[in-house]
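Example record for the data management plan.
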Amino acid sequence: MPPFLVEAAQSFGKALRLRMCYVLCLSELSVEGRDRNIEGQRGSAVVEFTFLAVLLMVPLIYFVVTIGQIQGASFGVVGAADQAAKVFVLQNDPASARKAAEQSVIVALADYGHTPDQATVEISCDRENCLTAGASVTVTVHVDVLLPMVPFGDTLKLSASKASASATQIVGRYQ
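Corresponding structural encoding:
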């Protein structure tokens, strides 16, 4: 190996060792030409770690809370649509059936922390009279999932997502 390459490799090795000691704040190692200012660097890694942890963890926790809100809304609309369809087909007249279905949606979504103004309910039938025997009734529930912990969130209506679900029930023959 040529002597200039050996000298370059030794020089690179010394420079690498010096830099690693400086980065790792190792003042116990004796390295020629190292900064005497390393002692002033002790403890700065804790400060940097704390700063970066807060900087990275706050958005991560907010993301997890938002995903939890969306998942809760998904569970809520599925249950609300299913219960509303079941309640609708058990009623005697269409007006009370619609009212009972909307009330069951409000109760089901309240269990998941959603207010009635966030939800919309659509009821459709395959026949003119929804409550005739054999009629198919479909209830669709939509919910706007608002961003959690947003100041003035009720007035701004900043939506994270929309969740919707449908359920279909057949009106029984013998009622």
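Summary line stored alongside the record: Helices lie at 3-24, 44-89, 94-110, 153-156.
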